[in-house]
Write a structure and sequence with these properties.
Number of helices: 7
Oligomer: single chain
Strand content: 15-25%
Largest sheet: 5 strands, parallel
Number of strands: 9
Structural class: alpha/beta
Radius of gyration: 20 Å
Shape: globular
Strand order of the largest sheet: 5-4-1-6-7
Helix content: 25-40%
């Protein structure tokens, strides 16, 4: 299934370690195989509408189509958001590589550490029943924008990873959106139940129960959820904001992790 596509990447990493171990056992003079990861990698888990791009606050019969934000035009990508996710995804790769180079690197060894930043996992309220029309494809503007961000750092295969959808029921009963995203997150972490290979950062917005989903992630899985970031959005145009700008909720911690 597409939502577990990262499993293949984890399998490749494990196979690389096994191959290196096999090489060491058949070549007594080789350097001992180092651990594959000193630090878990970070997979960014993101909402789409009002998090990566503006919904424009469009409504049909009183039901919002994706979100409430009117700060930008519908479909506009928020400045800096892709780079923000790239930097979070890249950092653990960098420190693992640095640790390996400082402690294990040997020109005589056949083993080399080659890691790629995990692709962005998507938890969206878009209905699975409408997937034919709403599916997030590799050729979409969103996927291309993420991919270009990695390519600017000469990484060609970074971008959209697992995508887990909502259902029509959450469009009818809006209060279920937070629970659905949390349930999909539980499906996502089945790819690495130990948390030794992957940990997570969730990025959502303050418009449609992403805070509820993020709080539950931090409360139920503090060992693998490193942080939750929420994009502050508003149904009011910028012209109506006070001089200090859009009101921002007070920061808080859940199980010692920042929300």
């Amino acid at each position: 299934m597409a939502c577990y596509s990262l499993l293949s990447s984890l399998a490749i990493l494990c196979c690389s370690l096994e191959s290196a171990a096999a090489f060491s056992s058949t070549n007594p003079s080789s350097v001992a195989t180092p651990p594959l990861l000193t630090y878990p990698l970070t997979q960014v888990v993101s909402d789409i509408d009002d998090t990566l791009k503006s919904s424009g606050g469009v409504q049909v019969a009183g039901v919002t189509l994706g979100g409430i934000d009117v700060q930008y035009e519908r479909g506009d990508f928020y400045p800096g958001v892709f780079q923000f996710m790239w930097e979070m995804s890249l950092h653990p790769v960098t420190i693992n590589q640095r640790h390996y180079d400082d402690n294990f690197y040997d020109k005589a060894s056949a083993f080399s550490l080659q890691l790629s930043p995990p692709k962005v996992a998507v938890l969206t309220a878009r209905a699975e029943e409408f997937k034919a029309a709403l599916e997030i494809k590799e050729g979409s503007k969103l996927a291309k924008a993420l991919r270009r961000t990695g390519e600017m750092s000469e990484v060609k295969d970074w971008g959209i990873g697992p995508v887990l959808y909502g259902s029509v029921s959450e469009w009818i009963i809006q209060d279920r959106k937070g629970l659905r995203k949390f349930n999909n997150f539980e499906r996502l972490i089945e790819q690495d139940p130990t948390g030794q290979i992957l940990q997570y950062v969730y990025v959502g917005d303050t418009g449609e129960l992403d805070q509820e989903a993020g709080e539950t992630m931090l409360r139920e899985y503090p060992e693998v959820v490193k942080a939750v970031f929420l994009h502050v959005v508003s149904m009011d145009p910028p012209s109506s904001y006070p001089p200090s700008g859009i009101p921002i909720p007070s920061p808080k911690l859940i199980n010692g992790r920042p929300l």
